Amino acid sequence: MNVIEPLFAAAIGNTNLAYDSANNYFQIRCSMAQQNITLQFMMSPSANVTDTPVVLNVAIADVIYPMDSDYMSSASVCMIGIVPTTGQIFFGESILRSLYQVYDVDQNRIGIASAIGSDSFISGATGTDASSNGGSSGGSNNSNSNSNNGSNSAGASRKASILGSTVISACILYALCL
């Protein structure tokens, strides 16, 4: 069993999700893109898992893609843009497109902030520089200034947490180290 399936099932429910083993992706009801669901990806800023991880809060709409149309509004078949895996989880375009990233190879560090137009945000990090969109550059404990801050009209949102010991460094994400 892959590590992603139970997390998606917890976040969006089993009835909204179907694994396509022939193509190795999850189909999802297109209407789920309209739901106020946030996926949380927790990463340690060092090789050791710490009590203060960097948390990438990604709106479910940012990782849902239409399969039979160019537009979500007319799509009847959609997929989740996170590939099932049995080991480590790698962040690809579907996650990274909702973030603004600055790679400082000289200092071996990455600054991360929310991308403009995205409901995703960063929390729990250790730096001090804040973006105007509520995220962080290298991380800060800033609150998100976007209208979607992880809560829905009912006052609660479902969140799936993925805790890993991913090292935030240019070496890991883009293999920039020599």
Description:
Residues 1-113 form the Peptidase A1 domain. InterPro entries: PEPTIDASE_A1, Peptidase_aspartic_dom_sf. Residues 132-152 are annotated as: Disordered. The protein is mainly β and 178 residues long. Helices cover 10% and strands 29% of the residues. It is built from three helices and twelve strands, in the order H-E-E-E-E-E-E-H-E-E-E-E-E-E-H. The protein has helices at residues 4-12, 93-96, 170-174, and strands spanning 17-20, 25-28, 38-43, 54-59, 64-66, 78-80, 99-104, 109-114, 121-123, 129-130, 136-137, 159-164. 30% of the residues are buried.
What is the CATH superfamily label of the domain at 3-124?
Acid Proteases
By secondary-structure content and strand pairing, the structural class works out as mainly beta
Helix content: 10-25%
CATH architecture identity of the domain at 3-124: Beta Barrel
Mean pLDDT over all positions: 66
Would you state the CATH class of the domain at 3-124? Answer: Mainly Beta
Helix-strand topology string: HEEEEEEHEEEEEEH
Task: List the strand order in the largest sheet.
Answer: 1-2-6-5
Number of helices: 3
* Straight-line N-to-C gap: 34 Å
Stated plainly, the CATH topology of the domain at 3-124 is called Cathepsin D, subunit A, domain 1
Tertiary shape: globular
Region (Disordered): 132-152
Protein name: Peptidase A1 domain-containing protein
Domain Peptidase A1: 1-113
Organism: Mucor lusitanicus CBS 277.49
